Amino acid sequence: MEPLTDVRDISRIAYAFMASKALFAGLHLGLFDKLAEVPQDLDALSSASGAAPNRLYSLLTALVSLGLMVKEGERYANAPATDRYLVRGRAAYFGDYYTRQIDRLVYPKLDHLTPAMKGEAVDGLYDHEFADPEEAADFTIGQHAGSEGPAYMLARRVDLSGRRRVLDVGGGSGAFSLEICRTNPEVSATVLDFPNVVGYADRFAAEGGLADRITTLAGNALETDWPNGHDVVLMSYLLTAVSRPAVDALLARAWSALPSGGLVLVHDFLIDDAGTGPDLAALWYLPMMLGNPDSSALTESELTGTLARLGFVGVESEELISEITSLVVARKP
Q: Model's pTM, two decimal places?
């Protein structure tokens, strides 16, 4: 990112939260769903959404200005990306990720960012191990929607020929296990996560017809004994969510759990070695560190270096989601 020289660019950052809330309001009101088939005018959208025309007009204008909608005369229509990703029922839909996880959980947590920076105790995203069932549901179902695309990419990027069992540590809804098992018919998986979370992995496995190949284990990845018999350990979006000492502990546990020839797969937000970005990867460390005062942004070389020190060989890293996440693969000799 080039250094900013114009105050308007600073303003765009300062006002960005308004754009987020406009997007979330559009999803909550079902506006994008209502435009899935044909463009509609203000009165039709007002009637369908229950929002008064004067207020809705302001929101629609904002959504058009952001490029989420287009206006054709007096009628509104979805932008192409909106139609693909924000209309419920579409194959690539992940609006639930924005409404359930980002809007309801992540967004309000960031109100406490400044106190957290000063060392004050604040609640993080994972506090109390998702003791609140409703919050656990919102986070897990939302994350499932957000993970389906990356899981599809990862499952087709990694060669698991000859592998039999994957231990999906902190696997949440099991989105990555589902795609790995779909792509590799000979592979089965175990999802390890908190008690209020793994039930959703069971549910999604059953809905996907994979209940016979995906099992779950309720527990804390740092405390629960990892089961034997797995030749692949997967950790996706896990290292971001723990303290820096816990990163080393989890990687050491992966080493101990794997047999000779076993693979470790780490998918997460990694910043560049210069500490300059990418921006979306860097920003994700802010909500994640709220409950982890000992956490810090993790660079690619720090992760690959730790794996090498533990004894892993053939350590390789590549971008998975462009400018957001990286995939690191290593083998235990």
A: 0.91
